Amino acid sequence: MRTAKKSPPKLTRRNYSKIFRPIFGLLVLGYILWRLYLVLFVQQTYTAEIWVRLLISGLIIGGVYALIAIGYTLVYGILFMINFAHGEVVMIGAFAGYFLFEATRSINVASAGNPPLSFSDAYPFISVVLAFLIGMTIAAISGFFLEKIAYRPLRKAPRLIPLISAIGASFFLQNAAQLLFSPQVRDYANPQAISRGAGWTLMINDARVIVTYTGVLTFALSIILMIGLYIMVQKTKLGKAMRAVASDKNTAALMGIDVDAIISRTFIISGALAGAAGVMWGLHNGLVHFFVGFLPGIKAFTAAVLGGIGNIPGAMLGGMFLGLIEALGPTALGISFQLKDVIAFVIMIIILIFRPSGILGEVLSEEKV
Amino acid sequence: MNKDIIRTSRRKGLIFGIVLVFLVLINFHIMIATMISKLLGTNVLRGAFPEARFMIIFLVLYGLWVGWSAVSREGQTKTKLLEGLVAGMTTGFVLVLFGLILFYLLETRTDVRRYLTALSFSSINIFLLDLEGVGVPVHFALSTLTGLFGGALAVGLRSGAVKGFWNNIKSFIINQRQRITEKLPEFVLKYGKYLIYLVLLVVLLMMPSRWGSYNNFVFGMVGLYVILAIGLNIMLGLSGQFMIGIAALFAMGAYSVALLNSPIPHGVMLGFWPSLVIGMLVAVLGGLLLGLPIMRLRGDYLAIVTLAFGEIIRILLNSDLLTDFTGGPRGVQNIQQPRFFGTPFNDVSYAYLIIIAMAVSIFLYYRLENSRTGRAWLAIKEDTLVARATGINVSKYKLLALCIGAAFAGLAGGIFAARNQFTGPNDHTLMVSINVLSVVIVGGMNSIPGIILGSFALRGLPELLRELETYRLLVFGALLVFMMLARPEGLWPSSRPDLEQKGTLGLKEDLYPEEEEEEGRENV
User: Fold this and answer.
1) Does the CB of B432 have a partner CB in chain A at under 8 Å?
2) Which residues of A touch B507 (CB under 8 A)?
3) Is CB count within 10 Å lower at the N or C end of chain B?
4) In B, which residues are within 8 Å of A345 by CB distance?
5) Half-sphere exposure of B452 (CA within 13 A, CB side)
6) DSSP string for residues in A107-139
7) With DSSP H G I counted as helix, E B as strand and the rest as coil, what are the percentages for chain B, rounded to 5?
8) Which residues in chain B touch residue A305, judged by CB atoms under 8 angstroms apart?
9) How buried is residue A72: exposed, middle or buried, by Cβ count under 10 Å (0-12/13-18/19+)?
10) What is the DSSP letter of A7?
11) CATH class of A48-354
12) Closest by alpha carbon to A64, among A212, A274, A270, A231?
């Protein structure tokens, strides 16, 4: 193929991907723009209020994804492994919150009313706070034990081994939950004040858009937790130690940081965030079952990859972005709502092909990618 | 010293106690008691509960295990016995607490089955050994005693006399074997291995027509997983590409055969054999399309992209978009049966077909592994940069591995669809990919006997042990974790030693050796 020494680069088998990738990208981009054009300017079937509704649901789901994605990113940043069982930690948190709500609902408060008020209806604020605390605690504990049992002995094994172990742990937790709590889908017993569907009403073009209380709670709490985590990682001693361990374990150990303890705490923090996400998922979607953590888990991993894995603001941004894409994407592209997962996955693949380090990720060295 | 011993054995006893409580909460003890009663010849009706005495047998065995595992290797006999006793007592203490709660539930007739499904009154009764409140102290006494006995058993069996006895037997067997092999003529030694293979092959060929259609079905499942796992092993074990979406390629083969042989969506009726080839080609094309854009990704990213690819294919098959073309969630039904010289296929012929496909796959795998291509794959897996520097076209060989692996997956898919006479999106979930991955990992990467053993252990045994069905996935998950902790190289590791793995796992000292960790990352 090479005839002259100083000829311009030719299409050889080696560099076909350099030509293939831009063409592929242009094709995808063109298709997306064409669909957008069709939906927005030609068909115009969707009114403003539908868009606002989708935007709100996207933000709420995005907040939950972001919280779960932070857990993936924290663990990946330190151990370079996909914590495949993270979705199950979310499920455990959701179940813990569910049991707390059931318990508070079954306790009656002494009052004159008939029928008697239950604790969760009388003090909704306290019971919600309790549910989040319990959910986060139990999920944090399960994250701690997960690391201790399934990952710590494999710290030095090749990369494949902890991943398989994580898959096994994920199966185990899922099926343990199924056997303990039965496979049925359970209704989340929200306190009456924040029952699902209730909310403030917005008027947009004479159409009502309901902003649910659970949605606002979910969104606000996820933002608060994210800010808290960011401050913790950036300002506190623990956060500094975590960053040190993430960048270099050996040097961190030489500086007197207990690496094992920091890894344990990382799992505890990511478990707590996952537990909060689980309770939010339950409160907002109103159901919990043994499989509830699986799909959000995979989606949140997608979100973490989108934002640049190992990067905490990236995970937040990626989660929000993924939630918005999932909510707005099918409508904006004019395709069936069944395919929202396909959109999420396709976008992840495209991002990985064109920018493997994600939106915010630094350019990782080859062995990290 | 004594305090330390007591603390560790207390911890062990606590863990064992919690595990037993968990087992009771998922009704595992009833299953075990039922199995024990079956073993002892007392049949338990389906849905009925076994008698309490079988539960006691289970508890005794469990307690012996507690004592056995609490005993450490070093130390004096007295401290060892103490360890067993303390562990047994701790387990007993946990059981007493749990038993008291259960007894309270039983006395107040509180039904908690809304929250904890397994905890019915009959289940509680069996846990309390049909003795109500008396069962609680009985539990304590039982587990303390069995803990002590387990410790004593461990001390006895590990003592010098018993060890010497075992060593004598071992050396006797080795000596006998040496004497026999010395006397045998040389050609037996040379070809004896093949003789054993031949006998096995003859048995394998005899079996399908003898052992009934259900066993044929199970055997077929195992065989198809062997083919799938060989395909995955070419991608993962030889060329080091972490593929989780093999179900998508499996689906391509299955749907090609299904759509070309079913009257419903299209009515093409091409016949099985040409459509099997087409299915393999479609899968190869799928592997190529997946491989082209992701050539530069490695490790976990590759895993997650292929996982997403598999999910995309499944969701598309399930969606309205393709319903007219692939039958949507209902799948493709009434797939025409293949014919071989005019005779239609039955379960026996499918078993033979799968044996032949398996044999061909294994043959091809060995030829590939020992070829120039196979060595190039191994070089890429070990170190991509060095492989590139030695003049290996990395992209080409990686794509080749994906395509060849995909062809195997397509083959398995085609046979699967025709054999079931049906295929739908639910046959191609993420579970299939993960199952195949587990077969390769649990069996042993790059080892055909390991893969066969792995598919039998993970696909065949659960089908045969129907009692375990409810707990199948739970046990499967626990087994995966346990395997990775105890035997990461697989049940039957390949003869080509993976030096890296030994280097990284064998070292206990220096906590974070930088270079080895780097190598570990490169490994995938």
Assistant:
1) no
2) 156
3) N
4) 308-309, 311-312
5) 8
6) SBPP-S-SSPPBHHHHSHHHHHHHHHHHHHHHH
7) 75, 0, 25
8) 301, 304
9) buried
10) P
11) mainly alpha
12) A274
Structure tokens at B339: 């014919």
Q: Tokens standing for B149?
A: 């006995």
Residues in chain A with CB shorter than 8 Å from the CB of B316 are 339, 342
Which tokens sit at B501?
């793995």
Q: How many Å apart are CA B180 and CA B40, to the nearest integer? A: 40
Residue with tokens 């030994």: B502
Residue B397 identity (one-letter amino acid): Y
List the one residue out of B340, B317, B316, B312 whose CA is nearest residue B327.
Answer: B317
Q: What is the CA radius of gyration of chain B?
A: 28
Query: Which residue type sits at B95?
Result: L
Region for residue B371 given its phi and psi (left: phi exceeds 0; alpha: psi -120 to 50; beta: otherwise): beta
* Calpha distance A131→A275 (Å, rounded): 10
Mutate to test the interface with A, among B480, B483, B500, B516 (most CBs of A within 10 A): B480
Contact at CB, A345 and B396, closer than 8 angstroms: no
Give pLDDT tens digits for B358-389.
989 999 998 988 889 988 998 888 888 888 89
Q: How high is the ipTM of this complex? A: 0.80
Do the chains contact at A336 and B512, CB–CB below 8 Å? no
Chain A residue numbers with beta carbons less than 8 Å from the beta carbon of B485 are: 150, 153-154, 165
- Write out the H or E segment, with its range, that includes residue A183: none
Q: Taking the domains of chain A in order of start, what are their residue ranges?
A: 48-354
- The two tokens of residue A146 are 């997960």
Neighbours of B352 (CB within 10 A): 16
How many Cβ atoms are within 10 Å of B367's Cβ, its own excluded?
A: 11
For residue B433, give Cα distances in angstroms to B14, B214, B428: 37, 24, 8
* CB–CB contact B309 A349 (8 Å): yes
Per-residue pLDDT of chain A (369 residues; tens, 9 = 90+): 444 455 555 555 555 666 776 787 788 788 888 877 777 777 767 777 788 888 888 898 899 999 999 998 888 888 888 888 899 999 999 999 998 888 888 877 766 666 677 777 777 888 888 889 999 999 999 999 999 888 888 888 777 788 888 888 988 898 888 888 888 888 887 777 777 777 777 777 777 788 888 888 888 998 999 999 989 988 899 989 988 888 888 888 898 888 889 999 999 999 999 999 999 988 888 888 888 888 888 888 888 888 877 788 888 888 998 898 888 877 777 777 778 888 888 887 877 777 767 777 654 444 443
Beta carbons within 8 Å of B230's beta carbon, 6+ residues apart: B361, B362, B365, B408, B448, B451
Omega within 30 of 0 (cis) for the link into A115: yes
